[in-house]
Write a structure and sequence with these properties.
The chain is of the alpha/beta class. The chain contains 7 helices and 14 strands. The chain has one domain (2-228): Ribonuclease Z/Hydroxyacylglutathione hydrolase-like (Metallo-beta-lactamase, Chain A, 4-Layer Sandwich), CATH 3.60.15.10.
């Protein structure tokens, strides 16, 4: 699976591009702030055509560029419980953050809702750009946080670590940490349940591509991540 990851211009949010191979359709995951130029370069380099945009949740740093990436036709997929955030993203964003973006990019922040939004729920199965994804609802960071699982791994990665599947974990699970639960829509009790019921059952051979920071594996996180230790029963 062709996999390209690069950070957004704010918060180092990871944007991912996945495709079966160069020259084919692709899926864009979490197009954050200021990613458009780099994304155009990635698409041109690998001759890719976006077939869909997957959103792990509705926070501004993960969805800011979804509308320009989607254009008029490409669908954006988001969990039902975070769908409301796309109606008026600025209304659900801290005004101080908006002011920071405006200062950084030198223009007034505006928001246009994507024209084609598909709501997804737990265990939804999606076949997009020749790849099969399973949605796992994992609330806690936001009400509609999800992880996307695919039974493929990035080209060459299986030769470096023992993995046979990939999970795009958004802001649920990071290398050595987890997503915050103190922001609007966050819920620590829900996060604990998600870690116990959704994250921990993932096989050790799962490659984890998080919303921020480096990739990791479930084997590594199970053995070292302090937030996965001594979870409530």
């Amino acid at each position: 699976m062709l996999t390209v990851a690069f950070p957004a211009q704010a918060f180092d949010t990871n944007c991912y591009v996945l495709a079966p191979a160069p020259g084919e359709e692709c899926v864009v995951v979490d197009p954050g702030i200021g990613i458009e130029e780099t994304l155009r370069e990635v698409l041109a380099t690998h001759r890719l055509r976006p077939a869909a945009v997957l959103l792990t949740h509705g926070h501004v740093d993960h969805v800011w560029s979804v509308t320009p990436v989607c254009g008029a036709d490409t669908a954006a997929y988001i969990h039902t419980d975070d769908r409301y955030r796309l109606h008026d993203l600025l209304a659900h964003t801290n005004p101080g953050l908006i002011a920071m973006f405006e200062q950084q990019f030198g223009r007034k922040a505006t928001w246009t809702e994507p024209s084609n939004v598909v709501e997804i729920t737990d265990h939804t199965r999606l076949t997009l750009a020749g790849l099969d994804f399973e949605v796992r609802h994992a609330p806690g960071h936001t009400e509609g946080s999800v992880m996307f699982g695919v039974d493929r791994v990035p080209d060459g990665i299986g030769e470096q670590v023992e993995v046979d599947r990939t999970t795009l974990s958004g802001d649920v699970l990071f290398a050595g940490s987890i997503g915050r639960t103190d922001l609007p829509g966050g819920d620590n009790a829900a996060m604990q349940r998600s870690l116990r019921d959704v994250v921990l059952p993932l096989p050790d051979t799962t490659l984890v591509l998080p919303g921020h920071g480096p990739a990791t594996t479930m084997a590594h996180e199970r053995g070292t991540n302090p937030y996965l230790q001594h979870l409530p029963a």
